[in-house]
Amino acid sequence: MTVYLPDGKALEVPEGATARDVAQRIGPGLAKAAVGALVDGELYDLFKPLPPGARVRILTEKDPEFQTLFRHTLAHVLAQAVREYFREKGYDPDSVKLGVGPVIEKGFYYDIDAPEPLSDEDLPAIEEKMREILRRDLPLRRFVLPREEALARYRGKDPYKTELILEIPEGEEISFYQQGDESFGFTDLCRGPHVPSTGRIPPHFKLTHVAGAYWRGDERRPMLQRVYGVAFRTAEELKEYLWQLEEAKKRDHRRLGRELELFLIDPMVGKGLVLWLPKGNVVREELMAFMREEQVRRGYQLVTTPHIGSLELYKTSGHYPYYAESQFPPISFKERGEEEAYLLKPMNCPHHIRIYAYRKRSYRELPLRLAEFGTVYRYEKAGELLGLTRVRGFTQDDAHIFCTPEQVKGEFLGVLDLVLKVFATLGLKDYRARIGVRDPKSEKYVGDEAKWALAERQIEEAAAEAGLRYTVEEGDAAFYGPKLDFVVKDALGREWQLGTIQVDYNLPERFGLTYVGPDGEEHRPVMLHRAPFGSLERFIGILIEHFAGDFPLWLAPVQAVVVPVSEKQADYAQEVAHRLKEAGLRAEADLRNERMQAKVRDAEVQKIPYVLVIGEKEKAEGTVSVRRRHRGNLGGMPLPAFLEGALKEYRERLLESPF
RNA sequence: GCCGGUGUAGCUCAGCGGUAGAGCAACCGCCUCGUAAGCGGUAGGCCGCCGGUUCAAAUCCGGCCACCGGCUCCA
Known about the structure:
The protein is α+β, with helices and mostly antiparallel strands. It has 4 domains: about 1-65, Ubiquitin-like (UB roll) (Roll); about 70-245, Threonyl-trna Synthetase, Chain A, domain 2 (Threonyl-tRNA Synthetase, Chain A, domain 2, 2-Layer Sandwich), CATH 3.30.980; about 285-545, 2-Layer Sandwich (BirA Bifunctional Protein, domain 2), CATH 3.30.930; about 560-650, Rossmann fold (3-Layer(aba) Sandwich), CATH 3.40.50.
């Protein structure tokens, strides 16, 4: 058969030839350096037979793909090491059963059913075993078995591997990778690809932690021990990663929330319930004011609705009992002999729908946009709660747009524009858009096929028109309609959904909403749910990490601190602070009995944007010496000049100082 | 909810069978100071909670609670 090299050159090789054979034909030097190959753009190792006519590019340790190869092999090395670890503890190696061991973003993991639980304390010993396996330089080989033989290998020994084999589609190869021999090595069901031998793996890896993980992510199935590791090509990269991890921890909003006194989650109040401290509340209020302005400008009408609603309301909407699992249980008065029951509201939409429905609507009123900062309550599982990003009570910058089917796309575009404005104002660039469509295999969706298809198409068109980079993910739709979510990562790399836009053909149906069209007939409106921030709590959590606590002036809880050089300027410092406050800035004078250096430092640590230093010179001249956070002394200027610049920065919500 | 880990002063942490410690913060005093920590002093603890083992428990064991890392789910 013929294969083609990157330069277009054709190479004649025997049937079943591998990338190793091709490398050898090109030259012995390359054959030695080769670790894998890109075959028609797909990552191959040196073992897997090439398809005829393949375009082959040999990879060496210099290629970035090398990382994927050795991370994968490291997962196998980890499994082998764990097995040897338990054998030395006197267990039968077969008592260590294996789930899956894939490559992940910075490394790898392996899911292991171990005879006794692993803890972080076991990791150094396992890691040492792994290094030993690298030093043994065990060569890998790949082989294929017929289904029956493959099953026979694991029958009665490893239910996980057996299950995996049974799920490999008929006609697909069932391949194994073996490192070392059967007695002094390790063999695993695996589709590959892998490095040629364990000695080729750079020793720059580290086992990071153990965590429980349900087999196949299903909580009804057994829990395995997942051992996570990170791995890089060079010691520098590993060091850099570990350093970044430390830095990321400093950005953690839970830590900054405490250090900057932004919010509190008090177990006595209840887990997952946020207490906003005065400083954090400033951020909240500023964000709400910003959103209110933008919404009013865009034709939204503001409404206010209660925190609870009758159970009947949610039965009509279908939220109850559909989402009963994640709701606080109904508030009932049965013991008082009253039948009525209420639900802490898990969503605002039913309330808004009743506002729409309270009188007859004309097509001339549409699109009708009802907005509210609505606080909702959801009973998230205890283990799910996390700082501000996963809570049990949170405020959505919610709105519901009622429109005609023809208006859907235009409204969708309008919301996209608003979301992008929010992101641009805050300098959030690292986000992705995710369009959630139905999982064709699932039955959980309401509404008819044709409407779903229409909505899904409209969303994609609008996203494309807005120039968004997006991915389409099956099964990510809400039960009542498809949606577009904006997703960002927190400091530790976990992904969170922020803004969301969802099309809903279901609720208007359930509540029997109508409008009178130009034809005088009644028609059914379409509804859009949308929340640009998503939840204020989560959004602020992400913002804290995004800015590492260095909020732009308009969000900073304290915008300026006036620091007198000595007590002699205390009166002038107070006067300056007073004038800043008069002008609408959040400013204070720091009159503590401390040296000014200490006050400057405290202001930096508190991430206050401006420090105005006042000495004899400034007092005499009516000026202030301006110091910008992280930048240092900007020099003196007349107080009005500072006020003008700072107010511009504040009112225009600038990200950078104009000075 | 499940698996693993961790709970000591407001914060960060040491102590790990024998009378509870440090730094920072707080408070008081001295210093009156020019852009990231001046000096001295004082006060502060049901060592998460409940039970057990022991002559003796912050320390060992068990249960509970909270938090952390994951898994799962997510309107």
